[in-house]
Amino acid sequence: MSTRKAELNRRGFLSGSLLLVAGAVAACSSNPVGKSSGSSGGGNGKTTLNVWFHAYGEAGTQDAVIRYGKAFTAANPDIQVKVSWIPGDYTSKLYSTLLTPDAPDVFEYGDFNVALAHHGQIADLSDLYGDAKSDFAQGDIDFVTVDGKQYGIKMLDDLMMLYYRKSVLSKAGIQPPQTFSDLASAAKALSTGGNKGLFISNDGVGDIPALAVWANGGELVKDNKAAFAGDAAVQAIAALKQLHDDKSVLLGFPTDWADPSAFTQGVVPMQWSGLWAMPQIQKELRDDFGILPWPGATAGTGAVRVGGWTSMVNAKGKNVDAAKKFVQWLWVQQTDLQKDFAESYGFHIPPRKSVAASADKLAAGAPKDAVALSQKYGHSFPATWNTSVSDIFTAAAGKVMTGGASDAAKALSDAAASAQSEIDKQLV
Question: What pTM, to 2 d.p., does this model score?
């Protein structure tokens, strides 16, 4: 599974669409791709916005976005909001629908893809930021910027990092790993009694090749050129093979890396997962856990992944102005709802600096440490890191990790050549 797909498919899933009007909620469609009967529907001169969300697994999120839509319609009675809750492979469903009459007016997108801007699919939202632009983290502004224009508004930052059980490591006389060598040794030592020491994903690959490259000072793409065949990247990915050679990684657990069950149930003492999982981990383990970046070759180096979701407007839709009004209202003007979305349904980092500063649940303890990790070690996928590029890289890295490719340099060089053609397609 590609790193992007692993995130997009990450947790539990409901289907259906809900039509929101001031004071009422009515079932509109159970179609899993959220088909609308028309972009201007609703009658009485109202505009109907079709707004897509992927099916978040955190309890309460669906109810929250329904509530946000109702509040917007109450403030703007001429615009109805139809929230479509999309299960499964959200990205594939989005792409297959964008060029049809059933395309959403507003949609969220994981990470960012420069091709959507270059191909005229998403609207320039630069004018929506206004005076609030300086309050957004600069990295989140840069993330959505193409040729000096902002093509989205970041809704939340999702942090992915390494969790470890303090008591288990302490009992085994193992310090929290500061280097990759420490991590590999700890994972091997903690693989006892049929249990494994580390869970990174069900396929044993997941996000980790990208994290290893970043942690070792390498890059995935630089100046629109595939860079993951450089010396730092090759060394980092070749080193990952030790985890499989030592048989210290858990494979095929009933839930994947985004769900912390393997960690909270004591199946593994170390797991790669996300900040969204921390409330569940705190509830079940209290303070018996710590967090770390994926470690690099030397102490003090490492990487965490900063992903998240961005709100975008379909530039080819029939309701662009109304769609921009909704996006500005929710993700720029309503700081109370932004705070609610970030800390009430799992933990996420608000893109607005003032909102992040006021997020009480992120202000102390492990959540505060996580925010610090994001600031010190955070990396995001490049804007050209689409599914095709990611799949090419992950397949090659996975073969190196699991022993299917004996020459890491050649495997990654060949993959970089293939990935470059996919990068170039996005820049036309």
Answer: 0.82
